[in-house]
């Protein structure tokens, strides 16, 4: 059913840590920060050179940091109705059709939006002074055991992208997006039995140790180091991963 032509990831950050988080992610990506916008100047985009943005930062009044997704489609109202038939629900009652977006929750409670604004030029990896390259190019949907099967089936249906196992790690599956999409989708079956679905960002790189050191200098904290990825937390406390997958 997919008419999704672009995906944007929003880093939703509490007000107290918003300035530090915005500066951190600007440093991580190497992108410029757009002028703030929104009713309360709460939105900013991280804009790559010569490409359309796929990462944005939103200042929250309170609550923990989180990720939500914008799915760009020709008609948000039509897409929302189709998603509702697959098990999603509207997160904001009486949204109407004149806002240009519709806020939804997936069957497992994950917040996402259908929006219509255009984008098509995918960012290239950034090359750093040490010769390494990196790019935030993946969102991982973290799904508790109880909701995994329903949630994974929902995202496969709502995107229309091929779902396949991830090599070497039985707890992961992938959705295979078209080449023009800026973000890959990784589906993770968590060890915990219950809870809401959430998400984190993954950064592909060449040279994980050097990339990790760069992030720590910018203000990240290393939480754990695995065989294929390193888990860190940004200045707002949000978890994300630096992985060994080559940046697209």
UniProtKB/TrEMBL annotation:
Residues 3-117 form the VOC domain. It comes from the Bacteria. SUPFAM superfamilies: Glyoxalase/Bleomycin resistance protein/Dihydroxybiphenyl dioxygenase. InterPro entries: Glyas_Bleomycin-R_OHBP_Dase, Glyoxalase_6, VOC_core. Pfam families: Glyoxalase_6 (PF18029). This is VOC domain-containing protein. It comes from Nocardioides gansuensis.
